[in-house]
Amino acid sequence: MTQVQELHEELLKKLKDSGRNYNLEKIEDAYRLADTAHAGQTRKSGEPYIIHPIAVAMILVDLGMDSDCLCAALMHDVVEDTKTPIEAIEKQFGKDTAVMVAGVTKLTQLPLFTKEEQQSENVRKMLLAMCEDVRVIIIKLADRLHNMRTMSYQTPEKQREKSLETMEIYAPIAHRLGISAIKEELEDLSLKFLDPVGYQEIEDKLQLEKEDRVRFLQEMQDRVAGRLREYGIEPHIYGRVKSIYGIYRKVYMGGKDFEEIFDLYAMRIIVNTDIECYNILGIIHEMFHPLPNRFKDYISTPKANMYQSLHTTVIDKEGIPFEIQIRTWEMHYTAEYGIAAHWKYKAGIQRKDKLEERLAWVRQIIESQQDAEGAEDIVKNIKTDLSADDVFVYTPKGDVKSLPNGSTIVDFAYAIHSAVGNRMIGAKVNGRIVPLDYQVKTGEIVEIMTSKSANAAPNRGWLQIAKTSEARNKIRSWFKKERREENIAEGKAELEREFKRNLIHFDSEDEYESFMEGLLKKHHKDTLDDFYAAIGYGGILLSRLIPRIKDEYTRLMNTKPATEPAIVPVVQPQKRNKSGVEVEGIDNCLVKFAQCCNPLPGDDIIGFITRGYGVSIHKQDCVNVINSMKDPEQQGRWIHVHWTATDAVNFRSTLNILAHSRDGLVADISVALSNMRVPIHEFSGKDLKNGTSEIFITISTQGKEHLETIIEKLSKIRSIISVERSGK
Ligand code: MN
């Protein structure tokens, strides 16, 4: 028998042994189609190509996937690597299978795209396909797993590249889907190529005294089982070794000693009901001494990927700590197979269908990606959103929110509700005021202070503070919705300015539109207005885009027959200058107020011609101005500006307040401001060590004099030491 025949037989045996009702005929048809299509192709190892799809299908049988999914797995590389059209597959195998095959098929080379962008476009496509049918991603994970298992035949560059991608994208996806077996193997295989030395070191250490450890664990297992039987519980107990990458993370990233890792070996106890889990925990804590702070109740607070179990680390008489995990069978299936348990145990277990809930994050990533700053961002979003560690934070009412590690107040506020985030003016952690970029930690009680004022609104700066794509998405969508007209106008003006500056111009509206079409497509926008608006609300960063637009433009111009040079660039009708500042010699120019000194009408001001963001207005005595004037390269970019008569224009400015800490201070400040009808945009602060507090408030004012009045009023509040305008 040839190798292929053997493997084929093995697959058939696996299907029959699975005890499931597979459509063997259909699966055989898929096998034959793939075998014919890949005929003559070989893998890097020199083996016939068909070995790969068979191996992928076998992984999926173990996961318990269904017939259509196995058909798609067998044919998963047929469209990409052979001339077989997807229509032929749909005709023979039906829509479901065809959708899956199409979903795992990579996009063909995209012109104008960098390697990173191609990668993220492909990930994006995969996630979209996954929304349609989640089996797509399960096939993709099995595909990647087999490729990683056979990675030694690839070049070292390819090994590293694929391993990194696996570590950054596929393992996190497997984690989020709760398929821990695949996740751990992917991580271990990637680590082997990414840090061969570190990998080997851990493997060697695990071998040392392995027998002693195994014997120790077996003894403990017997003791626990014996005691539980006394209580009439017949548990299923087994031991497991932590994955190499799991240890690696603790040793190399967590800075722990190998010996300090208590869960190197864990004992798992599986029972039938939740109550039994808690009972067993009690018995265990009676038998052994539990280590403080090592008990985790993931039953009442499941991890974001729905993992549930009780974890505790105990220490025996000889002083050896070890971890015990207690769970029900259902929790066990969810932990091992995650989303795949949906297929594997569909028949056996009565459970509410959690598929939708499990996939909410995919939709969120895709949504946020539509507004993301660039195609690369999807990979970044996956990295943060899917990071393995979560923190659990409480609302004052005791509700728990789980957020990725590193999440800030902004993330928490938006995790509660968009309305809470959008109206946030500050926050307290365990009763103390904290700045909005404060990173929340497990166990903290976070209270978001909101304002009912119509002026309460998110701040664009929050986009930088937010870690989760959920929060960023919600902030962007606020700007998108609330300020669409403004965004379009601003975005359009910005684009025109950039085109002008870069000497990009078009002879006709048609030429402009056809040039723009490619850009729209690339950013998944339907209309020019959508594109302008995205620039306006910061969804598209022109500064990143312009170099490539320039290249494309040059390329286009060089291939175009020479015509009369156009003299007048395309200029759109003027927009009224609403900023209240006139820039000498330039009409209708974009004006931004510098964040460093927040100038107000009445201040002596000066303008700086920025690269790509119009003129930024500073106070003349701003430190940045004084420093920049010393730089000969920047001197020439300063320009005279002056205030024009304005009314009804509001300016933001930030006040730094220093005060003796006391209860009710924050309330007094809010009341004073609201009595003066001053809108608050942001309220944050921190307690200093010497019994004083520092508070930062961003408010709207009508100008310098108005602000001075406000400062005077605030200074009179009891225990306030000083009120200063920030950015002097
Ligand atoms: Mn493949």
Secondary structure layout:
Elements: H1 3-17, H2 24-37, H3 51-63, H4 67-74, H5 78-81, H6 86-93, H7 95-104, H8 115-132, H9 135-149, H10 156-176, H11 180-194, H12 196-207, H13 210-230, E1 236-241, H14 244-253, E2 265-271, H15 274-287, E3 289-290, E4 296-297, E5 310-315, E6 321-328, H16 329-337, H17 341-344, H18 355-370, H19 377-385, E7 390-394, E8 400-404, H20 409-416, H21 418-422, E9 424-429, E10 432-434, E11 446-450, H22 462-465, H23 469-482, H24 484-501, H25 509-522, H26 528-536, H27 542-559, E12 581-583, E13 591-593, E14 605-609, E15 615-619, H28 623-629, H29 632-635, E16 638-639, E17 641-643, E18 651-660, H30 665-675, E19 680-687, E20 692-701, H31 704-715, E21 720-725
Parallel strand pairs: 2-6, 13-15
Antiparallel strand pairs: 1-2, 3-5, 4-5, 5-6, 7-8, 9-10, 9-11, 12-17, 14-15, 14-16, 18-20, 18-21, 19-20
Helix pairs in contact: 1-3, 2-4, 3-4, 3-9, 4-7, 6-7, 7-8, 7-9, 8-18, 9-10, 9-11, 10-11, 11-12, 12-14, 18-19, 18-23, 20-23, 24-26
Residues 52, 76-77, 143 line the site of manganese (II) ion.
Tags for this entry?
single chain; 6-stranded mixed β-sheet; binds manganese (II) ion; 728 residues; Hypothetical protein af1432; Ubiquitin-like (UB roll); Beta Polymerase, domain 2
Walk me through this protein's architecture.
With 728 residues, this protein is α+β, with helices and mostly antiparallel strands. The chain has six domains: 3-153, Hypothetical protein af1432 (Orthogonal Bundle); 203-347, Beta Polymerase, domain 2 (2-Layer Sandwich), CATH 3.30.460.10; 389-481, Ubiquitin-like (UB roll); 483-558, no CATH class; 581-643, no CATH class; 651-725, Alpha-Beta Plaits, CATH 3.30.70. The chain contains 31 helices and 21 strands. Strands 1, 2, 3, 4, 5 and 6 form a six-stranded mixed β-sheet that branches. A hairpin with a 5-residue loop joins β14 and β15. Bound molecules: manganese (II) ion. The site of manganese (II) ion has 4 residues, from loops.
